[in-house]
Amino acid sequence: MESKKYRRKICLYVLxxxxxxxxxxxxxxxxxACEVEIFTKTISKGYGFEVLTCRFPNSGSGLSxxxxxxxxxxxxxxxxxxxxxxxxxxxDYDERHGLDWGPGNLEETEHHPLGPEFYRRPILxxxxxxxxxxxxxxxxxxxxxxxxxxxxxxxxxxxxxxxEIIGACTTxxxxxxxxxxxxxxxxxxxxxxxxxTSWRNxxxxxxxxxxxxxxxxxxxxxxxxxxxxxxxxxxxxxLHSEEETINLTPEPRGVRRMQLEIKKKLxxxxxxxxxxxxxxxxxxxxx
Length: 287
What we know:
- This protein has helices spanning about 35-45, 65-75, 105-110, 120-130, 150, 175-195, 200-210, 215-220, 260-270, and strands at about 10-15, 50-55, 80-90, 90-95, 100, 135-140, 165, 195-200, 235-240, 245-250.
- By secondary structure, it is an alpha/beta fold.
- The chain has one domain (about 10-20, about 30-270): Rossmann fold (3-Layer(aba) Sandwich).
- The chain has a 6-stranded mixed sheet with strand order 2-1-3-6-7-9, covered by helices on one side. A two-stranded antiparallel sheet has the order 4-5.
- The radius of gyration is 18 Å and the shape is globular.
């Protein structure tokens, strides 16, 4: 079956103010947003995404993440649009409430004034109900529950487009730095070869890439909370009922997907929603 052609592709990259450059092997000499830049440049230049980077404060003020993503979906959800949400931060899982998101510092999360408002099952339900096809990347611990029901709770929300999640681990595991490095590298390689990338197969590609690496080198770069480098690096969950998966199609080299006036229009649309708490960066161009 021929892959769906999208009129527009938009990525929202979400992280916290407390997030440093957690994955950088160059330590303090590297800019704080290195992992953000690696991924967003890959999908904007290689796959034609318009990218918004949103950084939330560690304490509750302004719009909540849940409200912000709800407005984002209302503005950009359309059957001809592909939405990608990338969450980067701390994650935990509770059988009653589902995924629990918070700042990367565990101590801050445990004493956070917002408390249970960090549970993000409502966000995932909103994304599943969006009319767009939706890709979700969860770069956090205990990222992907084993079933749709565990992820969304019952009754399941009305289904919009296709929705698929890949994460740095499953609910019983702690995440590894290898996910953050391998994901953009694989997308870059497949872009340069002109091959489509099946979202469902990405965890397999990541695992193959990891096995080809020297584990001793990667051990030095693992987050301090990792238990073992032998755990699976990535996992996958489909939240829609159809068998089809979403494919990422490389953009032709040299094609610039966004003009300056389009970038400004997109930035202005969401600026009013941020209440001064988010920084937006839109990437475009070609390799």
